[in-house]
Amino acid sequence: MKETVVEYILSKLYQLGIEDIFGVPGDYSFPVNDSVCANSHQRWVGNCNELNAAYAADGYARIKGVAALSTTFGVGELSALNAIAGSYAERVPIFHLVGMPPSLTQKKQRISHHTLGDGNYDVFYKMSQHIVCAHAIITPENCIEETERLIACALHERRPVYFGLPADYAVKTVIKPFHHVVPLIPNSCSETLKNIIPLILNKLINSQQPCILAGSMSLRLGVANTLQTIIEKTKIPYTTLFMDKSVLDETNTQYIGMYTGQILTPQVTSFVESSDCVINIGTILSDFNSGCYTSNIKIENIIHIMEDKVIIDGQCYNNISMKDVVLALQNRLLSLPTSSFNHHKSPKAQSLGQPIAVETNEITESYLYPRLEKMFRPNDIIFTDTGTFSMGLAFSLLPKGASFHSQSLWGSIGWATPAALGAALASPSRRVILATGEGAHQLTMQEISQFARFGLKPIIFVLNNDGYLIERLFCKEPEYYYNDVAQWNYAQLPLALGCDDWYCKKVTTCDELNEALQAIETLDTAAYIEIVTDRYDASKYLIKMREIISSIYTN
Amino acid sequence: MKETVVEYILSKLYQLGIEDIFGVPGDYSFPVNDSVCANSHQRWVGNCNELNAAYAADGYARIKGVAALSTTFGVGELSALNAIAGSYAERVPIFHLVGMPPSLTQKKQRISHHTLGDGNYDVFYKMSQHIVCAHAIITPENCIEETERLIACALHERRPVYFGLPADYAVKTVIKPFHHVVPLIPNSCSETLKNIIPLILNKLINSQQPCILAGSMSLRLGVANTLQTIIEKTKIPYTTLFMDKSVLDETNTQYIGMYTGQILTPQVTSFVESSDCVINIGTILSDFNSGCYTSNIKIENIIHIMEDKVIIDGQCYNNISMKDVVLALQNRLLSLPTSSFNHHKSPKAQSLGQPIAVETNEITESYLYPRLEKMFRPNDIIFTDTGTFSMGLAFSLLPKGASFHSQSLWGSIGWATPAALGAALASPSRRVILATGEGAHQLTMQEISQFARFGLKPIIFVLNNDGYLIERLFCKEPEYYYNDVAQWNYAQLPLALGCDDWYCKKVTTCDELNEALQAIETLDTAAYIEIVTDRYDASKYLIKMREIISSIYTN
User: Where does Mg(2+) bind (chains A, B) (predicted)?
Assistant: First the structure.
């Protein structure tokens, strides 16, 4: 059968497991929209706007590994850029299909809608090139090779790629290239690999107190399971940083809890920083991921195994992939007797304990986070926005298989609501919990209507503390009114947005919260709970963070 | 008094008439946020998200001439890009103030939040450069000169400019330059100007049937009043294109109605296209602004007076500003006797006439648009999204002083809701009417909460035709489900969004619509009316447009 350019690309994406295409339709992208609707194995997810669509694709890809986004020229693609940049930063592969005006319109430099009015049809393509790892304008002639190249780059770098699709080319039949060129993806240098493995093993086996730092890149690059096997064999204790929470199972006895530099849990900090061999597998020590740069591990005590390099004793070995290094390590470690590894007594990860209500019964962090921790079930998918809520909730200890998602490097508020939608579509059998602050929720909240539209049943918590609390804590004058947000009646939103049968509650006391959480246990509908707290109620982590952060913002 | 960098910039913007700063706060932009809140003559308008903020700034600038937007690094600025590009395309000057990480953080290439994690702090600045007419990273040393330059460029080009503000520099005291360089803005070439005026006058005075095409650039460049004076003196008939509607008063007897190429109103088309001297003052013949390229004026019969050039008899004269040309023409024309100008009998602009209800009493275009035309009052400000609604409503004849705003070149749906907010803040004494389709409204609808927050009383019409009708009409299979949108209960939205005392109605019959419109006349609150029509009910203009448009999209 003869395939069109769009059909070819969509079928290749389907082979990768992409069953949903997120986006907003538009005339220049009708070929993509038409082809998705005409095709029986993929579904069009028409989001409320393009930013939300791209966030939803990001959430989908965090669960399924990859995702696709369709936007129209100019107006559509630019609205998605913030989300695409976030996927680039946080290593989430998104295939961004951009419908462009027909080639002749471009060639003739016609003044068309969705252009700057200057006949320039390259400008938006150029803007996107800064935040994708590969890009191409697709023609019938280059379609097969360019699609292969873009897919290979996206999978290798775990980053977004850009397909520009002129509307006329998109519906033309794909032309097979005469000389099919297979895309070149760098392989590990076998020599370097051979040299580096003994160095790592030597350090590890001679270590008195080894420790593994499991980073989110290990999950993105598909080596988390191998890592889990290594940990089970060697019994090496492991920790994660904030951004990497739940990359490995938190119920394992070797899990020592989250490492936050000097901010919280001194027993974890003390263990990690006194370790003579910390093996970091794919985490980055950004500000919010290193306790505001308070992490203090000596260079000689840490081995960084990153996507394409290893750093050991302060020396960098390039051109070796994390996957190859971790697989080689696994092979060597599994053949050693268990007694080869020393184990200093390591701390055990702590749960948040019993919820403690204050005398007034108002909801405070001493009740809220321990109580939510208790409601988590195995395999739950939890999405949180960067803010007050995540900086409390992240310290809950998760049940087996549960995963916790935040956007700690890019930190774009509003991300979590559509991202949770994407995750729910990616894995309809798992329970999806969205925990967002009301300030963040306001950016993208219309997307909750899509949960109802697609028959999904998320549990949504909106923490209403009357403004941007994290900003109140970090800025010089907390009561400046730029930290206020418009006052909404949150619990009424789902109904207005067509979520007709949802369980919606506004809770202001611990008892009300407890009641709502008990009700949720037996419900077969989605739930939307507005949790009202004092405007300054914050987790211990956030309070401590406040103490050190002001010095960073002013250097 | 010593001023900081941010204080200096804000005071310069205040001198231009900017009393409101739109935006979303963020830690890197705290200096801007703080300074606005600390300053007694400017107001912080905290929008729900950055795209909405930038649209609101665009709406504000369409009323006041200029506007300011404040966003934070990366996450904030990128979310605003679609709107900034729209302002660039449609010639609306926006001062985009972007809070950046402190200079030392940048210099040290620290891995901070809101970055791509690669230590690159230029990337977002580079992305914005494609869609602003000038840009700078501001330091205490360059602040005075760069601020002058950016303001001069924005005012000259009527386009957005970018101020990058590293957080540490932003709060430092401005340093006066030793040699103050005044920004160079091109002047008209006096020789060309001297030569071109007689050419234009000669053609005009010898014309048997002159006609003026009044474009939105004449309004942006502040020559619309001069143009009105010329028209009143010479009695030359005038028309506008879709994008330029209401640039000149529509109650004037010389107004002949909208010119839409071959689509509608053949009497206007016939008059314009048989004119031997069409003077186009600042309109562009884009697809949607030329009846899908069906406008057919012979090159020898049209004089284009554009922002920086004149095209006459197919020959282009550069380096002369529209303002200088129009002022020179005014001076010469006012000194001539009225009898110097020939006047062919011109058509008179037609109102939409009486609303006609169909037998079922359901709301159709034959009732809707004439009925809404009747409710318009002098000085109303009307904002419409590109779509079904605007393509009917634009053919209403407006009362004196009323202005009609759409985004016909950029055409980003969702723009109108926040833009109407910006306009209402810019001119609280005028009545603001928002006419949007439900598909467009879904993109940005949270912004209606800001009307209530700021005590504004807009009248909002949401046309609910069960999906993206304009797309159903233009795509190959109207019932493809990508043209569906989530089903909402629109009339319940304002209450959920904190608009507690609004008059909200869903109307499905002509009688209900009429009743609601009558109720609005006596109300002292805002109104939000969901107007339900059949999913294929469209204006005559849109139906005709459909017939010719498919050939354009496929060339």
Answer: 465, 467
